[in-house]
Design goal:
The longest helix has 33 residues. The strands form five sheets. Strands 2-1-6-5-4-3 form a six-stranded antiparallel β-sheet, sandwiched between helices. Strands 8-11-14-7-15 form a five-stranded parallel β-sheet. It is of the alpha/beta class. The protein has 19 helices and 17 strands. The protein folds into three domains: 104 residues, 2-Layer Sandwich (Beta-Lactamase); 174 residues, P-loop containing nucleotide triphosphate hydrolases (Rossmann fold, 3-Layer(aba) Sandwich), CATH 3.40.50.300; 58 residues, Arc Repressor Mutant, subunit A. It is elongated. Helix 13 packs across helix 15. Bound molecules: adenosine-5'-triphosphate. The site of adenosine-5'-triphosphate has 17 residues, from helix 7 and helix 15. Adenosine-5'-triphosphate binds next to helix 7 and helix 15. Keywords: Aromatic hydrocarbons catabolism, ATP-binding, Nucleotide-binding. This is HTH-type transcriptional regulatory protein TyrR. Pfam families: AAA_lid_14, HTH_50, PAS_9, Sigma54_activat. One of its GO terms (molecular function) is DNA binding.
Length: 459
Amino acid sequence: MKKTQKNFDENEAVLHSLKDDILVTNLDGTILKVTDTTSSIYGVHPDDLIGRSVYDLEQEGVFTPIITPLVLKEKKKQTIVQSTREGKKLLVTGVPVLDKDGKLWRVVSYSHDITELMKMKSYFLEMQDEMDRVKNELKLLRDQNFNNEGIIAKDREMKKSLMVANQVAEVDVNVLLLGESGVGKTQLAKYIHNNSPRKNEPFIEVNCGAIPQSLFEAEFFGYESGSFSGAKSQGKIGLVELAEGGTLFLDEIGELPLEHQVKVLKFIQEKSFYRVGGTKVKKVDFRLISATNQPLEKLVEEKRFREDLFYRLNVIPITIPPLRKRSADIVLLIKHFLDVFSKKHNRERELDEAVMQQLLNNEWKGNVRELMNLMERLIVTSSSPIISIEDLPDGYVKGKNELASFQSGQQPLKAILKQVEKRVLNDAKQTYKTTTEVAKHLGISQPSVVRKFKEYGIK
Ligand SMILES: Nc1ncnc2c1ncn2[C@@H]1O[C@H](COP(=O)(O)OP(=O)(O)OP(=O)(O)O)[C@@H](O)[C@H]1O
């Protein structure tokens, strides 16, 4: 039977003036009073609430769970989160009301709509999960980068370089790594970072030779929105800003054109910069390591490299000897890469002694990178478990006449030249890291290198 709210007394008037929803039940759970807000929250007319049992309303799904039995059981104030039929989330507080003899008499409950709050909470939790995932991924990537940092060094000169690297790792001094392409300058820079107090912060590598000149400033310092045509509308953070707290590694610093050298020098001195198109000075805290395979002092003499910048970078120079002068390292590196690539490609391989002899006498123009690429190639291409001389590419076998095959054949000159070109490009690809370097060493333009790689299917 439904009861209606007639004859408002003073208490009722107060009750209805409240903006919160109030719901009063007796000890059976029958609803005695509600405010207007209650009915709008549950989407039920007051007449359809008064006189009804909260147990029935729960069964019907109007709201769930109900608080009355909890308050009756605990005999003190309780708070729960309730869902309504319309999908709202309510924070409901129920209070026991005692009669003049101190016995339980009524239960009064009131609620706050927390739907938005709950949505925010679930969004927040999702974001937190996402953050954890990204953090783990980042850690994994950093670990992958640094796991193999156990630098192989048996050669006396190489050991000396490593010792200096160890000594300077602790201190925030500028280090300049010198050595031919592929000797392990980047590897050593990572090693220094990973043994420094900044090891848990970013290691940001900037290849000064690989960034197109016109984009250098925007890539290096970042830019503000709309600072030049083609810029992203929201602006972009620069590489130097990413290095905050960590190590900034300027690789191939000798390739930096003079016009950029002055800006880089100012930035290194002041440890502050402006984004392109920016008006606010930005500070960044980093440790600087730079590297080059160029004779910087000679470039200074030729006025192609600023002397002041050279002295800034060259506080602690560390030279890494070329691989051909580190025969003790060659043997160890061969074993190391045999192991790494055997595992990677799931193929157990060993080197025939004659192959080892050939490799020990090789010139290794591309140094450790060349050796590493050759080992992977041999493991992938050799069909038997023992890699023999026949498996070695032509350039690695002393005394083998590379042109013999062409001389004995009846091919036209054009076809022979193409084959030679392909071989030269292939070798250069193994030796150098970027197409810019390949272009420089072969004396052709970088777009030509890219075109020829494509033409010969060199990947
Ligand atoms: N001593 C070493 N032990 C193990 N791996 C090495 C060692 N030195 C170099 N490598 C590996 O050889 C490859 C080339 O090394 P790295 O990139 O450090 O050379 P680089 O001198 O920086 O070359 P570039 O001048 O072209 O930038 C990398 O994959 C590196 O991990």
